[in-house]
Amino acid sequence: MLSQKSRHALHAMLFLTRKGASATAAEIAAAENIPHKFLEQILSQLRSRGLVIGKRGPTGGYVLSRDAAQISFAEVLRAIDGPLALAPCASRTEYRPCPDCRSVEECEIRPVLIAVRDATAARLEGTSLAQAAAGETPEFSP
């Protein structure tokens, strides 16, 4: 399930995409109905992962670190919540056996979780902020 923090991060990133210029955290929070302090935490995570740049001064605020067509939904979600996989044994980026796993090789659940991860990752990696802001839903075939 998508966390509220990730949902807010996507809304903030889409706001910056549509605006095409810098915006303050207060401006984003008001426009997207996100609690200001919570948004500051989210923007800090996005900045540390290199997805936004914070500018100081009278014309300061936040801007996307690169073109919106080059930032995928998957990048934003991974920056906030970590791996896309439902279980650590199905993760490509942070693989580890599940705590109660008897055998990764013989697990009947893992192949299904990997298939779900692959389909989810393909859709999220194949959807850019620019596409979403334009209302485009990329073609998808599993």
UniProtKB/TrEMBL annotation:
One of its GO terms (cellular component) is cytosol. Signal peptide: none annotated. GO terms for molecular function: DNA binding; DNA-binding transcription factor activity. InterPro entries: Tscrpt_reg_Rrf2 (IPR000944), WH-like_DNA-bd_sf (IPR036388), WH_DNA-bd_sf (IPR036390). It holds the Pfam family Rrf2. Keywords: DNA-binding. This is Transcriptional regulator, BadM/Rrf2 family. The lineage of its organism: Bacteria, Pseudomonadati, Pseudomonadota, Alphaproteobacteria, Rhodobacterales.
